[in-house]
Amino acid sequence: MATVSLTIDGMAVKVPQGTTILEAAKKIKIEIPALCYDKNLDIVSACRLCLVEIEGMPKLMTSCSTPVSEGMVVFTESEKVIEVRRTILQLLLDNHPNDCLTCQKAGQCLLQKYSFKYDVQFRDHNGARRGQEYASWTDTSSPYVFRDESKCILCGKCVRTCAEVETRNVLTFADRGFETTIAADGDQSMEESTCVSCNRCVVACPVGALMDGRTVGMPRVWETTSKTVKCKQCDFGCNMSVFYKNNKVVGVRAKDAAMGRPLCLKGRLRTELEYKSMPAAPFVKVETPEGRRFVETTWVEALELDNILDKIENK
Length: 315
Ligand code: SF4
Ligand code: SF4
Ligand code: SF4
What we know:
Blueprint: E1 3-8, E2 11-16, H1 21-27, E3 51-54, E4 61-62, E5 73-75, H2 79-94, H3 110-117, H4 130-133, E6 138-139, E7 145-148, H5 157-164, E8 171-174, E9 181-184, H6 200-204, E10 210-212, E11 225-230, E12 239-245, E13 248-254, H7 265-275, E14 283-288, E15 291-296, H8 299-302, H9 306-313
């Protein structure tokens, strides 16, 4: 494949034709901030945070969607770029609950990370803020996916990642303008919806709007160490993160929602049972006359081990 040579922040780099500026920068360890980008998902250039300056071009360009060209000279941290990034981050923070002190996502949140990097802070203002207007947007009906819509920055990564697995496609954008939300099956709670608790959306969410319900309340991420393990439930071998504090496992989460690796609840629970000494009881979603409901269940039922147990017992 033909290669292209360019310069990013004064560093020369050679990449295959068709590579985007953002991916070319990554190759030389330059991180261009982005909230809606994921290399496994369709590119939507929605957050605009990845704008860069290109010599000879009148406008800033989104580096997630602009392919490199021969001899291109790119600046990822010019004065003009930083000014625009700070404005975008300020607009996001102005519409966001000032919750970093207690938010479970703190330490892993991209909005927090970039706001710190570009010195953008929460500020008082009289305008509406999603969290104030719509406190009822918190949905804890699922023991596996906690939603706090007030923290959603509408990057759409959850919608795109859920749709990657054809049979799921649970999440969509709903309403318009300031009232835009992420909805499950139109307008249902996570419990009522057809969500299968695979947690692909949780992995994709860059902020604390979607959290793994079973690790809410886990020690802060900077108090823990983690290791990546392969799920042994099926041949996909999805990556899971196992978190430790004082040599004790304190949580297990799905790690990657990469293409071809669907993630699933059973695999995550299996990994939790394998690593955690006293895991909390699992739940399954069942159909009832009132609709879908989560009910507590046994590990044998959750992991569908009845057949294996029967064989062992009857041997
Ligand atoms: S989602 Fe991020 S920015 Fe928002 S409160 Fe949580 S840590 Fe802070
Ligand atoms: S947990 Fe899985 S099925 Fe449920 S909304 Fe998220 S991505 Fe979709
Ligand atoms: S819930 Fe998270 S991933 Fe989904 S749109 Fe909001 S911020 Fe993005």
